Structure formats: structure tokens, C-alpha cells
Amino acid sequence: MGAFLDKPKTEKHNAHGAGNGLRYGLSSMQGWRVEMEDAHTAVVGIPHGLEDWSFFAVYDGHAGSRVANYCSTHLLEHITNNEDFRATEKPGSALEPSVENVKSGIRTGFLKIDEYMRNFSDLRNGMDRSGSTAVGVMISPEHVYFINCGDSRAVLYRNGQVCFSTQDHKPCNPREKERIQNAGGSVMIQRVNGSLAVSRALGDYDYKCVDGKGPTEQLVSPEPEVCEILRAEEDEFIILACDGIWDVMSNEELCEFVKSRLEVSDDLEKVCNWVVDTCLHKGSRDNMSIVLVCFSNAPKVSDEAVKKDAELDKYLESRVEGKSILFTRNDVIAFLSMKTKLLKAIMPLYVGSNSGMVVCLNFYVSGKNVFKPRGYCILVFHKHFLNVSFRFVLYLYRSKCNLVKCYIS
């Protein structure tokens, strides 16, 4: 946990599917980490009477992939097969579980799978100390159940804005910190006993052995937070992602990015790939996984957006010289004027560099009188020229160009 490669592994695992009025795509990348410890679940049509329900989840493993991989295969069955989830059903009936039974069943399923895995020999004897966060959604015809245990995150984008987000379970949160201290632990450098960065997780049994305390009272709790939201016609998409994504993009930034990409492609795998590529080049050093679930009201491909995107690629290609992209000040002004909406740069963050003065700009695009995050750009000032990199990392990645190195003469 915490070890890095000399260069990132950028091969991706992809999948997609559709059903129950939903479309989904997913992408995962190992990145800079020595091992790939993420896992995911995507089920459209839950077996045994819930065929019009769907379940999606992302698991961010740490100290190994054992727990994450097992949960990706078996968590759903632990949820739907327990007595709390099915409490309102009668044998042979088509009656669906109530909202309270679903929420109770999800919590019970987490506790049951956590106790079940504790008996695995390698986890019991300490040979494997792995754990995993879990974030998921269970989608019924009427509700979306958001499920979170740890610091992965899910967001719902509705009617052009972030409508809901799960809350990260961090040791420094007052409620989490109180439980940790009541179990005899401490929070140091924002970690449980100075070590673990999450306060809720599956596995991590070294933190679940305090005598006299129940499973939800331990240093690390396996209890998920479950919230139900009524579905609405304005629902556009849900994003599930691990902290390798959220570490470098806020809820609003990621949703705006996904929205803009859905306007140029209906390939959800490709959209997810754009996300992980962007996060890698924005500095994420973790494994990266994202599941994108689109409702029928999700943004559609726009001919105008496709045209503008193609024009931008063509313009960038015209500026390639060898393995660098060179822009004059006038080129940057021309690039900004190509956008159909007004772009502005907020106060930059200055960073000293051997290759000149580096300025990180956060571009905002106006819409409905509100400036929304659009992406990042790094400008390297070198005499009278500007070398533009981060805004164009997707192009650089596709064209195999290296980021330009600038030397002060």
C-alpha cells in the first residue's frame, strides 16, 4: 500500500451494458500503483424476482485486492438473500421489498459479508490484511438507494446540477472520530491510529478486534450509510468512482466534464476512459475506477458540440511540431475564441520550476449566469511563447506526444 511504479500502467478494463431503461459504461486503470486493487459490480436485472432492479458498485481495495474482489462477486447476494431484505415478501408473491426493508437489508448484507470473510483462513491468520471501501447504487423502478462505506463516492446529476453526493467516511469526521476514540483508538495525521485513511471499510480485521464492542463500534466499521432518493424524469446520470478520481476532480468538475463528453460521444466506455486519462494527467497516483450509469434523460450527442470538438482537435494538430505543441500568445487567444461559450481563467497558482514559470489555470465556462469548472490548463511562460499542456492532455495522449520541456536560455 503506497508503493509506486516507475511509470504508470495505462491499460484499461472496460465494460458496458443496458437494460431497465439504463445504460452503463465503466473503466478502470492501475495507474502508478504497484498493484491493481480496485474492483466493480454491474448487474442489470437482479435475480430471483427483482429483474427490473439494477445494482452497480465500485470497491477500492487497500493492502491487497482479496476483499475487494470477493465483494465484487458476492456482496449483492449477501444483501438480497438476507432475511431483512426479504422481510415483507411472501413465498411465491411478486411483492417487492419496502424502502425500509431494502435499507435494513443492505446494512445487514454488509455486516454479514464482513463477518463471513473474517473466517477466510488467510484473513483470519493475518496473512492477508486487505480491506476495501464500497460505494454503490441499487436502482428500483421508483427509487435510487445510495450505499457508501469508506471514501469512494457516488453522485447524482439531475436537471443540470449535482443533486446528491454520498459523504466520505474519514477518521477526522466528528462522528467517526468519536467512535474510534470510544474503541480505544486515536486519529493522527487524519488516519486511524496514524495508519488507515478511512474509518469505514470491509475487511481490515486488525482494526476490528476490540473486546466488548460490536461490529459497528470498532475502530473501523463495516456499516454502510444508505440513503434513498425518489427517481425523477430530470435524472441524467450517476457516477460511482474511487478516490483516485475524486482526489483530483470535485463533484461539479467531474459531472460537467462527463456532461461535455456525452455531448460528443454516446460511447460510455469512451467517456469513462476520457475521465481516467484526464485524472492520470492531472496527477492522480492511485488506482482509478469509474462506473457511469445513464438514465433516459442523459445528455445526447450534439452536432454542434461534435463539430467544435473536431475543430479543436484539428487546430491542435496544426500546432504540433515534433513531440511538442507550441503556442504563441495569439494562438491562446485564438483557441479561447473557438469556444462557443465564454471562457475565463481565475487567479492562477504559481509554481517555481527549472523549466520556467509554470502557471496553473482553472478554466470556467459560463452558463445560466454561473461560472462552472471546465478543466485545467498549465501555461509555461518562456520568453514570448506559451506551451500549453494540461488542457490538451487528451490530445497529447491520443497522439502519443510528450509534454513539452521548456528550457530557459
Structure description:
- The chain is of the alpha+beta class and 409 residues long.
- It has ten helices and 22 strands.
- It has helices spanning 66-80, 99-118, 121-124, 174-182, 243-246, 251-262, 268-281, 303-318, 329-338, 393-399, and strands spanning 4-19, 22-33, 38-46, 50-62, 131-139, 143-149, 153-158, 161-165, 187-188, 191-192, 202-203, 225-230, 235-241, 288-294, 320-321, 324-325, 327-328, 343-345, 349-351, 357-367, 370-382, 385-388.
- It starts with a strand and ends in a 10-residue tail after the last helix.
- Residues 323-329 and 338-409 have low confidence and may be disordered.
Count of individual domains = 2
Instruction: Quickly count the helices.
Output: 10
Kindly report the average pLDDT value: 81
CATH T-level fold name of the largest domain: Phosphatase 2c, domain 1
Unreliable stretches covering 5 or more consecutive residues = 323-329, 338-409
Given the helix and strand composition, which structural class is it?
Answer: alpha+beta
Taking strands numbered 1, 2, ... along the chain, how are they ordered across the largest sheet?
Answer: 1-2-14-13-7-8
The number of distinct β-strands equals 22
Portion in helices: 25-40%
Shape summary: globular
CATH superfamily of the largest domain: PPM-type phosphatase domain
Corresponding CATH architecture of the largest domain: 4-Layer Sandwich
What is the end-to-end distance?
A: 42 Å
Strand content: 25-35%
Largest sheet: 6 strands, antiparallel
Q: Rounded to an integer, what's the Rg over CA atoms?
A: 23 Å
* CATH secondary-structure class of the largest domain: Alpha Beta
Keywords: Cytoplasm, Hydrolase, Lipoprotein, Magnesium, Manganese, Membrane, Metal-binding, Myristate, Phosphoprotein, Protein phosphatase, Transmembrane, Transmembrane helix
Region (Disordered): 1-20
Protein name: protein-serine/threonine phosphatase
Subcellular location: Cytoplasm, Cytosol; Membrane
